[in-house]
Write a structure and sequence with these properties.
By secondary structure, the protein is α/β, with parallel strands linked by helices. It has five domains: 3-101, GIY-YIG endonuclease (3-Layer(aba) Sandwich); 113-188, no CATH class; 208-393, 3-Layer(aba) Sandwich (Rossmann fold); 398-444 and 505-639, 3-Layer(aba) Sandwich (Rossmann fold), CATH 3.40.50.300; 650-737, Alpha-Beta Plaits. It is 31% helix and 23% strand. Strand 1 (3-8) and strand 2 (16-19) form a beta hairpin. Helix 1 (79-88) packs across helix 2, helix 4 (123-133) packs across helix 5 (140-151) and helix 17 (585-597) packs parallel to helix 18 (619-625). The longest helix is centred in the last third of the chain and has 16 residues, at 661-676. Bound molecules: adenosine-5'-diphosphate (ADP) and zinc ion (ZN) (2 copies).
Length: 743
């Protein structure tokens, strides 16, 4: 008797056994969606495995009720990946399995769109009909329809009506009734690309660096290499994308398919165009703005082998190809590959695992690889290909460190945000008709409202962070919970009108820039001004057409934008990220500076970058200014090794939340004591302690950090403690494995 191991649509993290009725044994496969008796009712679920035996007493098992024929199942080959995710990321098996299917496919509400088309049923009969009825007035509509269908392709009714002047719907019906024509139902794709056409491109002659990388990839694709993962470390503009395109070309020639992951923010029309130009209709693009119907169609097309390439953000990793040959993760260092809700997986790391399970090659590309990947390349776990120079042998931008301790506020009459060097450099560009980018990684006008009389600082009452002031809207808003209140006109504590705003954001920079660079055409791009994708595209288009002189923005403008006329980038405050209480602060700062600097000098003129800082001797700032990745990487790895941080250990953050602080603290302590029992002696526990941001949306936050090399037992214990034990009422607990954010 065969047994089906089924998970039901609840978050129980439990597999239930059911007997498989004889009539279903032939058809039942892992991954299928099935209906099962559950308690006194019935539920739907997915078959995870089919086994010979059950741990429960046979004969007492209930029988599976049936297969949900109309609902897509989980592709069988992805089930092992889901299982690994559940175990590794300490989430429930149901959460992991759900991640494998887009909601639009899972919920069963969307169907393929179909249309009815008409075609000739019997050519002989059709010809006979035409010859017998030609010239008869009463048959003219029918004759015209048959002639049209005999001479060119079958068509839906609307098309026939459009093309044939004599068309009549009743004539069409009669023809079907008489067996001259027949109807067939055909799937219609909700076309994501619409009618937009892209001129095709052909592979470029590879540079020596590209050729070397491609040779390695080719070996990997033929299964002749020591690792299935390649770190492609190439500076911006070194031709990584061209390597991806040619690698995909080779995978397709071998009859295999490919997935390309890019950060959501880089999934721009320009990026998509490059892939479409090379691969046309063999490509499916999965971005967050697809409708449910479009997503469903693209998933189905991939599943049925109608396309061979999927390009998309994080979740495109689960594209249901059955003959996957290649997974590319572009900008592999991006923290957005880590999902912040359960399952808290890293798409980069899951890509490496999917590649291993399905025998596919994985390419991780970056100009500034993560410490984890750099380390894996150093130890030989990953292969490494480097591309050190830009394709056209352009010079990297020249970066100057501007020591702001010597400038600005100390000199009366000067703006404290723009050093005199930077101001001069911007004026230079204005005179020459070139463009500048001013970058600051913080939006809003000012960070804090302070009362000069009593020292009161306006904080969000629900989150332990200061409010951000917007002068444009005269509001105070909280970044964390989204709460907004009108700005105070007098101090709420002492009623003094002496209110001062300290710190700065992009809105303030814009205002100051407007007064310093009078007459310059300036726009700002951050999440305050950019409400939709259209705003984003339209500002970029204006900038591209040269209708703007200066673009001010947050990290929204740091990535991937290619504007040949930008010859200057000003980094207003390079120190902002360094102050974060996170061991990745130096890495993030280095990456951000490198990226922003890369926006300068994409054309023929060498770019210049002014990096304003109050820590000119800081190592990260110095390595970044020298564009010295190797120097920085060695420095950063040394620091991480000394403090036993990843990649030298694994790190798991356990978060505790609740409105009653004492209760949260107490449960966190109790939880930690219990967990310690499963710890290998080398495992390091820090905390539980209040998180750096102690309160969000009214909930107190505690965090326990676990670091160690051998975390297998801890992981198992964590699954039990977080998924199978109920914390006290009002307290939430979850584990974040390989946490990216420690705030
Ligand atoms: P990256 O992805 O590393 O930033 P790209 O692949 O976008 O680099 O290449 C940068 C520019 O150089 C693009 O305009 C691309 O078309 C061009 N390019 C890339 N490889 C070659 C090549 N082998 N020959 C000529 N031009 C190339
Ligand atoms: Zn006051
Ligand atoms: Zn808040």
């Amino acid at each position: 008797m065969a047994i089906a191991k089924v998970i039901v649509d609840l978050s129980l993290d439990r597999v239930f056994d059911y007997e498989i009725p004889a009539e279903l044994t032939e058809r039942l496969r892992p991954g299928l969606r099935v209906r099962v008796p559950f308690g006194k009712s019935t539920r739907d679920g997915y078959v995870l495995r089919i086994a010979e035996t059950s741990d429960y007493a046979q004969g007492h098992l209930k029988s599976l009720l049936g297969i949900c024929e109309s609902r897509a199942g989980v592709p069988e080959h992805l089930i092992a990946l889901g299982r690994w995710m559940a175990e590794y990321y300490c989430c429930t098996q149901e959460q992991a399995i759900r991640t494998l299917l887009p909601a639009a496919v899972r919920n069963g509400k969307v169907k393929r769109k179909t249309r009815k088309i008409y075609r000739i049923a019997d050519v002989g009969a059709a010809q006979k009909f035409v010859s017998e009825n030609s010239g008869k007035i009463r048959a003219s509509a029918r004759v015209a329809i048959v002639k049209r269908l005999l001479s060119s392709a079958s068509a839906p009714q609307e098309e026939l009506a459009r093309e044939i002047p004599e068309f009549s719907p009743s004539g069409l019906k009669t023809l079907v009734k008489n067996g001259v024509l027949e109807t067939v139902t055909e799937f219609v794709r909700r076309d994501v690309f619409g009618d937009s056409k892209v001129a095709p491109s052909v592979p470029l002659e590879p540079s020596p660096d590209q050729a070397a990388a491609l040779a390695t990839i080719s070996k990997m694709l033929h299964g002749r290499s020591s690792s299935h993962v390649l770190l492609l470390h190439g500076v911006t503009n070194s031709g990584k994308t061209e390597v991806y395109l040619q690698a995909i070309g080779e995978a397709l020639e071998l009859g295999r398919s490919a997935i390309v992951l890019v950060p959501e923010i880089s999934l721009t029309p320009q990026t998509v165009r490059r892939f479409r130009a090379r691969f046309g209709d063999r490509l499916s693009v999965l971005h967050s703005r697809l409708t449910d119907g479009e997503r469903f169609d693209e998933w189905t097309r991939i599943r049925e082998g109608e396309v061979q390439i999927a390009v998309g953000a994080r979740s495109a990793l689960f594209a249901p190809f059955s003959n996957l040959g290649l997974i590319i993760v572009d900008e592999e260092h991006e923290s957005s590959y880590k999902q912040s809700e359960a399952p808290r997986y890293s798409a980069r790391d899951v890509a490496v695992m999917r590649g291993k399970l399905e025998d596919a090659v994985v390419i991780l590309g970056s100009a500034t690889p993560s410490a984890e990947s750099a380390y894996n390349a150093r130890t030989g776990k990953f292969l490494l290909a480097r591309m050190a120079s830009q394709v056209e042998n352009k010079l990297a931008p020249h970066i100057r460190i501007v020591d702001q301790r010597l400038d600005g506020e100390m000199q009366p009459g000067k703006s404290s945000f723009f050093s005199s060097e930077l101001v001069e450099a911007v004026f230079d560009r204005l005179r020459r008709g070139e463009q500048s980018i001013l970058f600051l990684n913080r939006r809003g006008y000012a960070r804090v409202m302070i009362c000069e009389a009593c020292g009161f600082e306006a904080h969000c009452p629900d989150c332990s962070v200061p409010y951000t002031y917007s002068r444009q809207r005269e509001t105070l808003s909280c970044h964390l919970c989204g709460g907004v209140i009108p700005a105070y006109v007098e101090c709420p504590q002492c009623r003094s009108p002496k209110i001062r705003y300290a710190g700065l954001g992009t809105e303030k920079i814009e205002l100051v820039a407007q007064s310093v660079f009078r007459g310059a055409r300036i726009a700002r791009m951050d999440s305050d001004t950019m409400r939709g994708a259209d705003d984003y595209e339209s500002v970029l288009e204006q900038f591209r057409r040269g209708e703007l002189d200066i673009l001010i923005g947050t990290q929204m403008i740091a990535k991937g934008l290619h504007f040949p006329n930008v010859t200057l980038v000003g980094i207003i405050n390079a120190d902002l990220g360094l102050a974060m209480p996170d061991f990745r602060a130096p890495e993030r700062t280095f990456q951000l500076i490198t990226q922003v600097a890369g926006r300068a000098g994409r054309g023929d003129i060498r770019g210049e970058v002014y990096l304003q800082t109050r820590n000119p001797d800081n190592e990260t700032i110095r390595y970044a200014a020298a564009l010295d990745f190797d120097g920085f990487s060695a420095f950063d790895l040394e620091f991480r090794e000394a403090l036993a941080y990843p990649p030298f250990t694994h790190l798991i953050a356990v978060h505790f939340r609740g409105e009653d602080e004492a209760q949260v603290a107490e449960y966190a302590a109790q939880f930690t004591d219990e967990l310690r029992k499963y710890a290998h002696p080398e495992v390091n526990f820090s905390g539980p302690l209040p998180s750096p941001i102690e309160r969000i949306k009214g909930k107190f936050r505690y965090m326990l950090l676990i670091r160690g090399i051998k975390l297998k037992l801890i992981r198992q214990a964590l699954r039990v403690l977080t998924l199978h034990r109920t914390p006290p009422r009002g307290v939430e607990v979850y584990a974040d494995v390989d946490a990216q954010s420690l705030l």
